[in-house]
Amino acid sequence: MNELAFFINNVVIAGSVSGSIYAIGAVGVTLIFSIMRFAHFAHADMMTFGAFMVLLLTTLFPAAGASIGVPTAILMLPLAMLLTAVLAVGIDKAFYKPLRAHGVKPIVLVIGSLGVTLILQGLIRLFAGTSGQSLYVDDRKEIFRLALPFEGARAPIVITEPQIYLFVLTLVAVVTLHLFLHRSRLGKAMRAMSDNPELAQASGINTNTIVTVTWMIAGALAAIAGTLLSLDVTFKPDLSFFLLLPIFAAAIVGGVGHPYGAIAGGFVVGFAETLAVFNWNVLLRPFRDSLPTWLELPSNLAFVGTEYKIVVPFFILVAILVWRPTGLFKGKVI
Amino acid sequence: MSNSAKTRNPAYTPKDATQERRFPLRELILFGVLLIAVLAVYATMGAAYSTRMLVEAACYAILALGLTIQWGYAGQFNAGVMGFVALGGFCAMLFSVPVNDAFWGTELPGELGRVLLYGIAATLLVVAATKLDRLGVPKKLRTLIAVVLALVLYMVVISLLREVTGEIQSRAGFVGGFGLPAWTGWIVGGALAGGVGYFIGHICLGLRSDYLAIATLGIAEIIKAFLKNSDWLTRGTATVSPLPWPTPGPAELGFTLSRAIYLSFTAVVIAAIFFLLHRAYHAPWGRMIRAIRDNEVSAAAMGKDINKRRLEIFVLGCVLMGLGGGMLGTFNSLFDPQGYLPLNHTFLVLVMVILGGPGNNLGTIFGAVAVYIIWIMSEPLALFLMQLAVAFGEGVFGWDAPSNMDSRALQARVLVIGLLITMVLRFAPKGLLPEKIKNHS
Fold it and tell me: What predicted TM-score, i.e. pTM, was given to this entire model?
């Protein structure tokens, strides 16, 4: 049964953690894709920016969270979301809007977003240095150990405080986004514009407002994802390069322009990553004695080593591009 | 673009109409400024340092020519220059490093060859399994068989490979090289990069251009991950050095002179590439490529095979990147898989191309040298500015200076490159030396 606990710790929990982060990131990418029609490469850096804002605020007011019993970083998250949303709108006004006004091809906007990536990265590193820092400035990370209700199970299931916050906040974010898209006027206008921009504009929807709102949502979501990831591990200024590929893989797997697809894609990529680096030999260990003698299992039965984790999203991406370019949920843009 | 219709020769010929010669004022001014900048660097930083900078800029110019083919001629955006450069560097290392007897003298090469044969056999088996439907096996069952077979065989081969590579690492360190002249490695590096480009292009060129960017970004990261972690092949993070030069090295002639000879060597390569590209651009082939870029639908209607041409262009660009990567790797005389950064190799080259003028070979070379000087010089400049700011802050407000100023000043490079990309896209979208587009209308 220890093997089961090991499996839950290393696959179920780890997969859900990275899955949730990829999902929130991919929703932002997919929203921008469906409204602005280009792949926004600077999204992962907006995540880093959000986490960096939380770090700044936490170091400014380290004791603020203790008064109401949550980590300071979580308390500062709404403010960081607001700041990142403002940044996202500012970036659009400063860099993408003039390009859009020139009527350039989407790929030029992609290059522009690469430029924005580098600017953000340079600025963040200029101010934050290059080393990793913990978002728990004054607090301690709590770790919960749950024993399995089986006989002979000695290894506990381990889950940490930030992971619980992560699951709760992901759920809240997804439900809020769903309600916004389906119940509010703005959300409906957004969906209309993503379906058919000309028709939406003809029926009196203000395009500029929609664009601003999209950037605000994407920025806020990026701040959540970046902060939660940095809470779980540590804040690193070069976080973004490791996130870019999984997030885009998730958005494409789910079907570009399809928010629920992006969420599903995020979990597909997250679980695929953890399953691929998981050593299956651990699960086969209890049956080792009953295997025929000619079949000797090697000690490492992982599909790829941990160092090749980056390969997994890429292979999912290529497989999806070959097999079903519109993604699992039939996104629209290709 | 607009006035070329007026200036073109009225007698239309199947070859490109020769333009009326105009005085190349813009080119002269830009290259004059560049020359002054180079001389300024020579005056301030010394000859050895500046020659080194020029050689590196020349290697980057080859990479930039590769990207300008893809982005300027065909509008394909390759965000994975780093990966192709790393392949070139790897091949240069593998071919030029002296033969390692601790590996080749034992039975290990045979073992490695056996595993490779197993790998090929496994691939053939899986391919055969995907053709099972010809024997009447239902399609779904065929897919299932193929997937399960692929997984199992992959596991078998990969665990055999892990055993052999572990042996190699513990007994011989790493495979070592072939002891051949460096240029053989450059050529093979170009071919290998072209092969990888063929694979990627085959899948992604028919899709939206964003997907190509994402896929190339991914393949670059994978190549880097592979080179970094295959200690048995590349010594991983331990790095391989020195790599022998094809020209006399610094030990024989001193830094400045040996680098100058290497520079003239790269200059010859650039001149050859430039000449061939110039010919191709003005040949019917170049006209077809531009027709496809400018109006794909009508080019297709004229019976041009769009996908094949696109693949051709993409592979050609990748070959140049592999070649340039090999020359850069040999010049650095050090193979460090971790040294291949998307920032230095992908985005720097991207800025060179869009600043210089995509599609214009001369502009691309100008961009390569200009941007490389900006890139190299922005660090000391930023450090100087930061020290000014700190001195000012300490004097007026009594600040404490952060201790890691040097590493932070290094980040100014990233910022400068990002600003350059966005500024050029906004204010000079066609680059400083725009491609001269000829209209045949």
Answer: 0.88
